[in-house]
Amino acid sequence: MTTKRHTSALIAALVALAIVAQTGAIALAQSSNPPVAATTPQVPQPDEGGVNWQGVGYGAGSLLTNVVYIPAKLVYAILGGLVGGGAWCLTGGNSQTANTIWRSSLGGDYVVTPDMLAGKEPIHFSGPTETAPVTPDSTTTVQPIAPPPANASMPSMGTAPGSAPASSGPAPMDRGSGSVGHPGALPDTSIE
Predict the structure, then answer these.
(1) How far apart are CA 145 and CA 154, in angstroms?
(2) Within the chain, what is the greatest distance between any pair of CA atoms?
(3) CB-based contacts of 180, cutoff 8 Å, min separation 6
(4) 32 phi-psi bin (left φ>0, alpha ψ -120 to 50, beta other)
(5) Dist. CA 120–CA 114, nearest whole Å
(6) Under a CB-based contact definition with an 8 Å cutoff, are residues 125 and 108 in contact?
(7) What does the alpha-carbon distance between residue 108 and residue 102 come to, in Å, rounded to a whole number?
(8) Mapping DSSP to helix (H, G, I), strand (E, B) and coil, where does residue 151 land?
(9) Chain centre to alpha carbon of residue 88
(10) What is the tens place of the pLDDT at every residue in 60-79?
(11) Average pLDDT, stretch 27-37?
């Protein structure tokens, strides 16, 4: 029993010593350093101790607006995150589609400030909807098709390779890879 009392007394003494040491260090630090100017400007105060009623009104208005705005924005953001994930899955991993949805729903302002109510700053409920253009990188497997040189002759669809073309008109961009011999049939587009 006495061991428990001694242990409790020792812990209490150490806690008290830590508090006193911390308080003394703070007091010493405050008295030895000259006051430092604040880096952020102070809000202008009215003359003669008056009250800035306009600022109070905008502050109270933003508080009341945020009671409705914040939950609505959070619901919009959560649903947009889920819909963006679903769109990514349904499009086979198309990140551009998902990012458009995510940027719109997860972006924007989550809090209305007094400056927004005063008209000094715009309120953005949703984020930007435009997407950045996709830049090709080295991992892209599909390469753009360059048009044939102007002086190159290409065989027409009805002639064998290596023979002279039937007409001197421009060659199609797909180099005749459409359906051949079946004018009414659609080309096979399966990937299997």
Answers:
(1) 16
(2) 112
(3) 157
(4) alpha
(5) 9
(6) yes
(7) 11
(8) coil
(9) 15
(10) 999 999 999 999 999 999 99
(11) 55
